[in-house]
Specification:
Blueprint: E1 3-7, H1 13-22, E2 28-32, H2 54-57, E3 63-66, H3 80-100, E4 104-110, H4 133-148, E5 152-157, E6 160-161, H5 168-178, E7 181-185, E8 189-190, E9 193-194, H6 195-207, H7 210-213, E10 216-219, E11 226-227, H8 228-239, E12 244-248, H9 268-274, H10 281-289
Parallel strand pairs: 1-2, 1-3, 3-4, 4-5, 5-10, 6-9, 7-12
Antiparallel strand pairs: 8-11
Length: 294
């Protein structure tokens, strides 16, 4: 029998990547919900009775991938209530409901939950110390899943980019065409993640049965570590832009939300449990940029 999967946030970066990747998994039955079909800003705000979409009411799904999220990190400092509603409170109600239907909950979290002075790659056992509204909301979403779902997977990922939506790679590519010189911070260290690799991983572990056997929290990003400055240099190199990039400190770009100075993650636990190789970030970046159209 084909495994069935329900995905929220179909118009977001991850949602679009999952739609593309789904074409390579004919044995999976995958349905997608957009923000109008599943409005996370409203779930649980008007009492216990929730107007679930028909896709949730009438069909049983083996897996639910929560790809929808509030991701405007700086705006979240003002939209505190909305950010927590979307990233945590709605997740609580979804987890409760889907647990009753024996649907496995897959929640996509963030490296922002790791924010300390540690300078070696974080493992899942390291104590989360989120700073900022967005970071705290993602950890609250994790807790909502753990407390309200009987079967779940949580993946902490970082620096996600792709061909769709707003992200660092698209911004750098645009600036590479428009400017002769730009400044990029060098004192924030982490690992870029091509959203298609993330999407392909999720569907692979569902398809091969590993997702059904595993439970808990896992780190997942592309392999390797770099600064935003290093990342920007590679983008310019691969795209053939001659823009000069000057490395600057984070203090040169004062923003409302704090950024982790070091959020590289150890993926050993993921590889031990799921047995998958993870592409290096530069190889993934080149594959992604090959899809860009001038």
């Amino acid at each position: 029998m084909r495994k069935s999967v329900l995905v929220s946030g179909s118009n977001g970066q991850l949602g679009k990547a999952l739609q593309e990747a789904s074409l390579h998994f004919p044995d999976l039955k995958i349905d997608f919900l957009d923000r109008y079909q599943l409005d996370l800003s409203q779930i649980g705000t008007k009492g216990v009775e929730i107007a679930w979409p028909n896709e949730l009411l009438g069909t049983h799904y083996d897996y639910y991938i929560h790809a929808a999220a509030y991701t405007a990190v700086d705006q979240a400092e003002k939209d505190v209530k909305l950010c927590f509603q979307v990233n945590a409170m709605s997740v609580k109600h979804l987890a409760q409901y889907l647990s009753l239907k024996n649907t496995k909950f897959i929640y996509i979290s963030s490296d922002y939950v790791y924010h300390s002075l540690q300078n070696t790659p974080f493992t899942e056992k390291d104590l989360p110390q989120p700073k900022g509204v967005y970071a705290r909301s993602k950890l609250a979403g994790e807790e909502a899943v753990k407390q309200n779902s009987s079967d779940y997977l949580i993946f902490r990922t970082s620096w996600v980019y792709g061909e769709h939506g707003k992200n660092f790679v698209k911004t750098m590519d645009r600036l590479g065409k428009e400017r002769e010189e730009i400044n990029v911070v060098f004192d924030q260290i982490g690992s870029p993640t091509w959203v298609y690799d993330l999407a392909n991983m999720l569907l692979t572990i569902i398809d091969n049965g590993k997702a059904g056997e595993a439970k808990g929290i896992f780190n997942y990003s592309n392999e390797g570590i770099c600064s935003w400055y290093d990342f920007a240099l590679s983008i310019m190199q691969f795209r053939g832009h001659s823009t000069k990039i000057t490395p600057v400190r984070t203090t040169s770009f004062p923003l409302p939300a704090p950024r982790p100075p070091f959020s590289a993650m150890d993926k050993s636990h993921f590889k031990e449990v799921f047995g998958l190789d993870i592409p290096h970030w530069r190889a993934a970046l080149q594959k992604c940029l090959n899809r860009f159209h001038d």
